[in-house]
Every structure is written in structure tokens, then in C-alpha cells.
Specification:
With 700 residues, the protein is an all-beta fold. Among the domains are: 218 residues, 6 Propeller (Neuraminidase); 91 residues, Sandwich (Immunoglobulin-like), CATH 2.60.40. Helix content is 1%, strand content 36%. The strands form ten sheets. Strands 2, 28, 29, 31, 32, 34, 35, 37, 39 and 41 form a ten-stranded parallel beta sheet that branches. A six-stranded parallel beta sheet has the order 27-30-33-36-38-40, with no helix packed on it. The longest helix is centred in the middle third of the chain and has 4 residues.
Length: 700
């Protein structure tokens, strides 16, 4: 196992210095493990294996989302039933006809006997007088629609009014409580009518003939301002209009929002103001108090978007925004965010974070575990960078995804920031800084016992001097028993050239153990992949190596997928192990899992460590800072230096190797065997700033 602080490589100022990283680099290979052998036990409700979970952390659940996200749908708050209702829209460009309810915590799909046809660009409003949600129009994909439907909390019913607006999409609708009617304005219609105003009284539509009207509007929004008993219109004309039930009046406030399409508005009764959010991909939030627009300055601003939906939830006393097209981020967002009048707060989405920072040993004692469909669980690592260990007394069901993968070695990482390894995994190396700024080609090595070596020269032949190597510097490490439970190593950073930085190495995949005293059912996917790479213009970084997945239960079943490959499916260099009395996983595995009967739950995180304690007689402060501007160790002369390494939990006689990455080269020293827990290695170093990594491999 390795514990290393890796930083972007930069040349040293004129003073001759050498920087060391504290590297507990350790490679374990288990030669054998005593396991229960013999025929599998007969299946019964509770087989003998116990995960050891106390259940003290209760059930682990995640908020249910609308799988696949949604754009161009519509939603309204059903006050009689305290639910937001969402219907239709598009997923991956395909029109939908599903109905979802949001209770303030979870989204739940319902299956009414009748439903409108699939569509997008329709509008909905809650008719409080009749306690039903009204839906009108939209686009089916081939034609625009002008049908009217109502939702009563259980079923959709199509209405047959004598009069209707012409077929249209992306019109604006709101309920006018003072006059107990739904107001519709504008929209895209082949028959025109984008300046029309219609009202719905629960039975029929009426075309209004106001003395004054706004110009034609498409993709705009209406909201009922209860404090002023008028309907507010704002949108792509950049004008503010209000409807009093008879006519429209234009207001001329100072500094209104910019003209925009696809905005959303609704009324906040707590603060007695209309809230406007986004539109035309702008990320701003505004409020209207009947006289003036005010741009809000929330601490947390959510991304601008279009095609989203927004509604006030009376039970939550919050504005709720769902979905939309977020350019460059998510074309079909599944995010649900709340506005409390001051700030935005994330509630749920496709990615939900499991925070490990409060648990130093990385072990949780749950009752049941449930990961819903459409949800990917990602992890915030603890300071100790332990693997994840979820223990459960009851069933574990993974319908979504659990992802402890390492980060992608992207080119746009901030200076000095590597691609992070997953929990229990190790960071990738930084690409070399362009020679015009650093005077050096050399990247920094990947971290971990198999950390990839960096590129050292800008040559195209052989390429292994230019590109960072994948996270297998010391060979495939770990063992079939996954003891210790250890994540993957980072890929090395690529070499730079005169004008371009080198490519960053991918982070190593993390490590996760899921154990249940009952059953683990995987319908979704568990990932512990190493981070992939991209070409930088100067070189490639190395791919991070795959991590580790250990499943242990009475029964492990399901059609789900297990992945622990090294940045690319062609490099299955992670480890997967499945232990159960009944094993019926039918999904793809990369690499193929090693299987066995459930072993006793041991302390899988008690692994040996190496610590570089002194360099050239200078003690290393523990833990080292890894700060390039203030090296951990400074000495004045280049030449041979002694590096003292202490081992904890590593047998005497174990060979220790040292790798030094300098401004111009990679220098290897050793092996030197540990004696009384110490090894002293001598290595000749040049002047400059560099990193030290120590590794050890042994059999236990």
C-alpha cells in the first residue's frame, strides 16, 4: 500500500534543494488464506454468514430521482394532495408520457389508467377552485396539440371544451386565483395567436379581447402575484406586463432582467414575491414585488439552463426547480434544487455524494442499503484515504450505480491539482510544465505501490520516454483475496514540450467492500475503474489502474455489472472478489471476479506502511507538506544522499526500493532489505526539486 503526497513538478529556484514525499509504498501478495471448503449450503432465509454490522448507522438510502433526467416537461403543485406533479417532456430526445409525483423528498412514478399522449413543450397549472391540475397543448413530435387534460390526484381525464386555443407549444400558463380561472398567453402555433390571451373556467376556454395586449410571446412565463391579485408576464420581449382579468398593463421598472426564452416563474407566498429563474441558459435569479425587479445574489448559484420546470411546494415552503438542459454539463438533468428566498440548495440528482469525512476508519454499520435506479453514488474521501466498507445486517439492493473510480486525467485540471484516486486509491501524476516556463520536460509520477512512471523527454520514439505510464509501475499488485483491501495506483504524468504541458495521469480506482448478513442484489453497476487520459498536445498521461470490489454475503445475485479496469476496458488490472454461499451474478465483469465462500470479516485496513523519515540526515516532518515552494527537506549539495525508510507491519527481510523523480530523469535505487524495521538506501541526486517514493512487496 502506498501513502504519498504527489505534486506538480516544477524546477527549483537557484538554491540546490531536494524535496521528499512521505511515501508509505507497500505491495502485498497473500500466498494463502484458510477458507471454508465443501458443498454450498442449502438456500434458506438466513444463511450462517454475518457481516459484523451492528446496525448502529441505520438504513442507508438515497433520494429517488427521475431516471435519465428530463427536459421540456411541465409541472405544477397540487395543493390538495401536497405533491408536485410532473408530466411528459423528453429524455434523450424521446417524448415521454409518464407522470411523476414529488412529495418533498422523493420522486415517485405513478401509473394512471389514462394519460395524455407523449409530448414536450406543454404547460400545466393548478386550478385551486376545482382542485385539479390542468394541462394544455404541447408538441407530439409530428404535430402541435391543443388537447386539455386534468389530473385529480389519481387519473388523467381529457376534457372536451366547446372552444380551445389553436394547437401550440411553449405557451405560458398560470392560475388566476382572484378570478378562479387559468390564464394562457402566447405560444408557438402554425395558426398564429402568439399574442392571444385565453382563460379556462374548468369547462371551456374563452378568448379574451383586452384593450391592450403584450406583443407576441413564445417561450415566456406567467405567474400569479397573489399579493397584488394580478398575473405577471415576462419573457423574450424583455417587457413586464400584468393582467388584471380584463386587460394587460405594461410596467416600466428600472433594470429588469434581460430578454430571454425558456425562463420559469412562480409565486413565493412566504415573501410575497414572484421568483424568476434562468432562461436562455442564464444562471440568474430575480424577484418581483409588484413594483421592481431585484436580482438576487445567492451564495450557491445553480447552473443556467433551459427546458427546466419550476413550482412552489407549499409543504416545503420552497421553490423547486427540476431538470432542464444545462449546456456542457447535462442535456437531460435530473437535479432537484430548492430556493428558500435567499439561496439555492441541492436536493437530489443523478449524482449523490456519500460523505466519508466523519469516519476515520471508513467503516459503516448499516441495517439495509438501497441505491435507487438512476442514482450514481460518488464519494467524498476521508483524510485517511481509507477504502469504503459498507456492512449491513439486512438486504443490500443496488439498482443504480456505486462509483469509487479514479478521476479522469483531464487537461483542464488547475495547476498543482492531480486527478484524484477513488477512496483507498491514489492520485495520478501531473504532466510536466511546458519547458518555456519550467526548463524541464519531466512529469511527476503516479502515486501508489504501482504508480506509473512519468514521461522524461519529448521524444516520439521511443514513446515511453514521452508519455506517462499506466498505474502498473511495479507490476499488477494486490492478490486474489483482496487482503489488504487497497485501491489502484495513479498513472504517471506525461512529458511537456517547449510550448505545451504534458498530459495528466489518471487517478487510481478506489476500493469498496459491501458485506451483508443477508443478500446483495446488483441490478445496476459497481465501478472501481482507474481514470482514463486524453492527449495534451505534448504527451499522454498514464491511465490509473483499476481498484478493488469485494462483495460478501449469504447470496450475491442479479444481472448487474462489476467494473475495476484500468481507465480503459482493455486493461482489466483491478481486482474483483465475490464471496457467498449462493452466487448468481449474471452481468458483465471486468476483470472476471474471483469467487469463494464468505470469509470471516477481518480488519482489512490494517496494512503495513513505509515512511521516509530522513534524507541526507535531515528529518522529514510528518506528514510532509508536499508544497513546492517550501520543500519538506532542503540541502545544499547535489550528490549521493542516504534516505532512511521505516516500515510498520512489514516483515524484516522485505526488500525496499526507492524511486526519485527529478527535473530531468527518474532514478531508481535498491533494493535494500528491512532490518529491525529500517532500510537505508543511497541514491545520487542532482540539484533541483523532486519527489521520492518507496515501495515494498512481501508475502504474508
Amino acid at each position: 500500500m502506498t501513502s504519498s503526497i504527489n505534486t506538480q513538478y516544477q524546477p527549483d529556484p537557484p538554491m540546490k534543494t531536494q524535496r521528499t514525499s512521505n511515501t508509505g509504498a507497500r505491495l502485498l501478495v497473500v500466498a494463502g488464506l484458510l477458507l471454508l471448503v465443501g458443498p454450498a449450503r442449502a438456500v434458506d432465509p438466513d444463511l450462517p454468514y454475518s457481516s459484523g454490522s451492528t446496525g448502529a448507522d441505520g438504513p442507508l438510502t438515497f433520494r429517488q430521482v427521475i431516471p435519465g433526467g428530463r427536459t421540456w416537461g411541465s409541472m405544477a403543485y397540487d395543493a390538495a394532495r401536497n405533491r408536485i406533479v410532473l408530466f411528459g417532456g423528453q429524455v434523450n430526445g424521446v417524448n415521454q408520457s409518464d407522470t411523476w409525483l414529488f412529495d418533498g423528498v422523493n420522486w415517485t412514478r405513478v401509473f394512471p389508467a389514462n394519460s395524455p399522449v407523449p409530448r414536450y413543450g406543454h404547460r400545466m397549472a393548478y386550478d385551486a377552485a376545482r382542485q385539479q391540475v390542468v394541462l394544455f397543448g404541447g408538441h407530439r413530435g409530428d404535430i402541435r396539440l391543443n388537447d386539455t387534460w386534468v389530473w385529480d390526484g389519481t387519473n388523467w381525464t381529457q376534457k372536451t371544451p366547446a372552444n380551445s386555443p389553436s394547437p401550440r407549444e411553449r405557451h405560458a400558463m398560470a392560475y388566476d386565483a382572484a378570478r378562479q380561472e387559468v390564464v394562457l398567453h402566447g405560444g408557438n402555433s402554425a395558426a398564429g395567436g402568439n399574442a392571444e390571451t385565453w382563460t379556462w373556467n374548468g369547462t371551456d376556454w374563452t378568448l379574451k379581447t383586452p384593450a391592450t395586449s403584450p406583443p407576441g410571446h413564445n417561450n415566456s412565463a406567467l405567474a400569479y402575484d397573489a399579493a397584488r391579485q394580478e398575473v405577471l408576464l415576462f419573457g423574450n420581449q424583455g417587457q413586464t406586463w400584468v393582467w388584471n382579468g380584463t386587460t394587460w398593463t405594461q410596467r416600466s421598472p428600472f433594470g429588469p432582467p434581460s430578454p430571454r426564452n425558456f425562463l420559469t416563474m412562480d409565486y413565493d407566498p412566504v415573501r410575497q414575491e414572484v421568483v424568476l429563474f434562468s432562461g436562455s441558459n442564464q444562471s440568474d435569479t430575480w424577484t418581483w414585488n409588484g413594483t421592481a425587479w431585484t436580482r438576487k445574489t445567492p451564495t450557491r448559484q445553480i447552473a443556467g439552463r433551459q427546458g427546466h420546470a419550476m413550482a412552489w411546494h407549499g409543504g416545503l415552503r420552497r421553490m423547486v426547480v427540476f431538470g432542464g438542459d444545462i449546456p456542457g454539463v447535462d442535456s437531460w438533468s435530473a437535479d432537484t434544487d430548492f430556493w428558500n428566498g435567499t439561496d439555492w440548495a441541492f436536493h437530489s440528482g443523478k449524482f449523490q455524494t456519500f460523505n466519508m469525512t466523519g469516519r476515520a476508519n471508513g467503516v459503516w454499520n448499516f441495517t439495509a442499503i438501497n441505491v435507487p435506479s438512476g442514482v450514481t453514488v460518488v464519494f467524498q474521501k476521508n483524510v485517511q484515504n481509507t477504502p469504503v466498507r459498507w456492512l449491513a445486517t439486512e438486504d443490500v439492493v443496488i439498482n443504480g450505480a456505486v462509483d469509487v473510480s479514479g478521476e479522469f486525467g483531464a487537461n483542464n485540471l488547475p495547476p498543482g491539482v492531480p486527478a484524484r484516486g477513488g477512496p483507498g486509491g491514489f492520485d495520478g501524476g501531473r504532466g510536466g510544465i511546458r519547458v518555456s516556463a519550467s526548463g524541464s520536460f519531466v512529469g511527476s509520477p503516479g502515486q501508489g505501490p504501482g504508480g506509473g512512471a512519468p514521461g522524461t523527454a519529448q521524444q516520439t520514439s521511443p514513446e515511453n520516454l514521452r508519455d506517462g505510464r499506466k498505474g502498473e509501475y511495479d507490476g499488477v499488485y494486490g492478490n486474489a483475496f483482496l487482503q489488504p483491501l487497497i485501491g489502484g495506483s495513479g498513472g504517471g504524468g506525461g512529458a511537456s514540450n517547449n510550448d505545451n504541458d504534458g498530459g495528466n495521469g489518471g487517478g487510481g480506482g478506489g476500493a469498496i467492500m459491501i458485506a451483508s448478513s443477508r443478500d446483495i442484489t446488483v441490478n445496476g453497476v459497481i465501478r472501481a475503474n482507474g481514470g482514463d487520459l486524453e492527449w495534451s498536445g505534448a504527451s499522454q498521461g498514464g491511465r490509473g489502474s483499476g481498484g478493488a470490489i469485494l462483495l460478501r454475503a449469504d447470496r450475491v445475485t442479479g444481472p448487474g455489472t462489476l467494473q475495476a479496469f484500468g481507465g480503459n476496458t482493455s486493461f482489466p488490472n483491478g481486482r474483483i472478489r465475490v464471496e457467498a454461499y449462493v452466487r448468481s451474478l449474471t452481468g458483465a465483469q471486468n476483470p472476471v471476479a474471483v469467487v469463494g465462500l464468505p470469509a470471516a470479516s477481518g480488519e482489512l485496513n490494517q496494512v503495513g506502511s513505509l515512511t521516509i523519515v530522513s534524507v541526507d540526515g535531515v528529518n522529514v516532518v510528518q506528514p510532509p507538506s508536499g508544497n513546492l515552494t517550501t520543500p519538506d527537506v532542503v540541502f545544499s549539495d547535489a550528490g549521493p544522499v542516504n534516505v532512511v525508510v521505516n516500515g510498520t507491519g512489514i516483515p524484516d527481510g522485505t526488500p525496499v526500493n526507492l524511486r526519485v523523480t527529478t527535473a530531468n530523469s527518474v532514478i531508481n535505487a535498491g533494493p535494500v532489505n528491512l532490518q529491525n524495521g529500517t532500510a537505508t538506501l543511497t541514491v545520487t541526486v542532482p540539484a533541483g526539486v523532486g519527489t521520492l517514493q518507496a515501495t515494498a512487496q512481501f508475502t504474508q
